[in-house]
Structures are given as C-alpha cells and as structure tokens.
Write a structure and sequence with these properties.
The two termini are 39 Å apart. Helix content is 81%, strand content 0%. It is built from 13 helices and no strands.
Length: 293
C-alpha cells in the first residue's frame, strides 16, 4: 500500500504524519458534533459558515494592507474565525426569532458575506497601492480550499487546540446542550437557557467549520459535519454509541481517503469524502437488511 510506503519513507513521512495528526484532530472534533448537526438538521450550516469566511478574508486583507497583521499568520485565522462566529450567531438569531426560515437565513448571510469579502479584497488592494506596498499574494483558494497534505506544524497545532477547546466546551455543557438539542421545548420548561445553548452550538460549529476548512478544504469540512453522524444514526440510537461510531467513521474515512489518495494520486479531500459516502451506503444497506426492523 502506497500510504504505508509514504509513512515509512523519510522524504514523505513528516508530510503524511502531519496530515494524519491534523486530520485526526478535525475528524474527532467534527465527529462529536456531527450527530447534533444531523438531529438538528443543520447540515447546511457548514456551507453557510464556510462561505461566510469570504467576509472574514476581506476583513483580514484590509488589515493586512494597513499593516495590522501578517497574511497567513495566526492573527488572520482569528479574524476569519471571529467573522464566521458573528455570521453563525446571526444565522441562528434571525431563524430563532422566526423572522426568516433557517435555510433562508443561512443563504442570506452566505451571499452577503461573499459579496462583502469581494468588495473588501478590492478595497485592500487600493489601500495597499495608496501606501506603496504590495498587496497580499495569497489567493482565496489557498485559504478556503486548503489541502490536508499541506498542513504544517503550526496548522496541526491550531487544529489540535481548536479541537480540544470545542470538545471541552461540549463536555462542560453536555447535559443542558443535549437536553436542548433533543427536546428544546421541554428543556426550556426545565429552565435550560435555550438562546444560550443555541448560541454556544453555533459558535462551536463555526470554529469547527473554519478549522476544518483551513486544514482540509470546504468540501471536506461540510462532509465531516454531516456524514459521520448520518452513518452512526443508521447503526444505533444510543447517544454514546452514536458518538463513538461517528468519530470512528471519521477516522476510518480519513485513513481510507489518504490511502486512496496515495494509491491513485487523487486529491485527499475528495478521496476522504468518497470513502465516507461509501461507509454511509454500507450503513444504509445494513440498516435495511432483512431482520433489521
């Protein structure tokens, strides 16, 4: 198997080990969130938040043109995450007040953020020209459509820290969060602060999506929030089992996708997605097999 060869070859070992470390952090983080996303029907939120990052990129580009941050650094990532968190809270707030349906609210923030990002990037170029400095040479694609094989030590550390933060928050608020997720009206009657739990969930989803997007690309980020949970819910209804299966499915998808990518020279992100889709197809057929009432 080519993946084993790459992992043992001194020339490529570090590249694939970094990819496995960064990818494992992302799939564990998204795997734990995925059942919640599926149960709450928030699958479209991944697309909404990831494309809202265009606005964050525009803000970061303006700050870079003004000399306030360095392109590609931690500060840029924080700016993009902060913008996506604000967008996610806006999506949740508008839909919660019944002002707009949830999918419409997500679409509104998605296109609005993309338009704002396009304008701000152009503004940043004008600012850079007026100051006599070169504009950032980084393309939108390098930020939005990253490859997991390009993850370096800094990106891997960022992914691990974000995963630890998200998982720690979920563990700390697990009881009110799960009560809110599975029975919002009863949770409200028992005093669970619904708006707070919803806002917290949107923040955690925004952090997970942007982290996964930076390390693995938009397509894989969205897939990791939906497919592991969808697979697990085909196989069990017990929460602990569903969570464990979702995380395991994400890890298997990651390793299998990297193996397919190495074997056939395919792009790693789409390869991981296709392996996860195959796992979902297998779980769906097993659920409908004879005797599985």
């Amino acid at each position: 198997m080519e993946l084993f060869t790459y992992l043992t070859d001194p020339l490529t070992r570090d590249l694939y080990l970094q990819a496995l470390l960064a990818g494992t952090a992302v799939v564990v983080m998204c795997g734990v969130l995925s059942p919640i996303v599926v149960v709450r029907r928030l699958g479209f939120i991944g697309q909404g938040v990831s494309h809202s990052a265009f606005g964050g990129i525009g803000v970061a580009a303006v700050l870079a043109a003004l000399g306030r941050l360095s392109p590609g650094g931690l500060a840029e990532f924080i700016v993009i995450v902060a913008f996506c968190v604000v967008a996610a809270l806006g999506m949740g707030g508008v839909s919660r007040k019944r002002t707009l349906p949830e999918d419409t609210a997500i679409g509104l923030f998605l296109v609005g953020s993309m338009a704002l990002g396009a304008i701000l990037v152009q503004v940043s170029q004008n600012i850079a020209a007026s100051r006599g400095v070169s504009a950032s040479g980084r393309s939108w694609e390098s930020i939005l459509f990253g490859s997991i094989l390009m993850a370096g030590p800094a990106e891997t550390l960022t992914g691990i820290l974000c995963a630890v933060g998200v998982l720690a928050a979920l563990w700390w608020f697990r009881r009110p969060m799960l009560f809110h997720v599975f029975d919002e009206e009863s949770a409200r009657a028992f005093g669970v602060p619904g708006p707070l739990m919803r806002s917290l969930l949107m923040i955690l989803l925004a952090v997970a999506v942007v982290t996964a997007m930076k390390l693995a690309g938009v397509v894989l980020a969205t897939a990791l929030l939906v497919l592991p949970g969808a697979i697990a819910l085909r196989l069990s209804r017990r929460l602990t089992v569903v969570t464990a299966i979702a995380v395991a499915a994400g890890v298997v998808g990651l390793i299998g996708g990297l193996a397919v990518s190495a074997q056939f020279d395919f792009q790693p992100g789409p390869s991981v997605v296709l392996v996860l889709v195959a796992l979902f197809a297998g779980a769906w057929m097993w659920e409908r097999s004879p005797g599985r009432a």
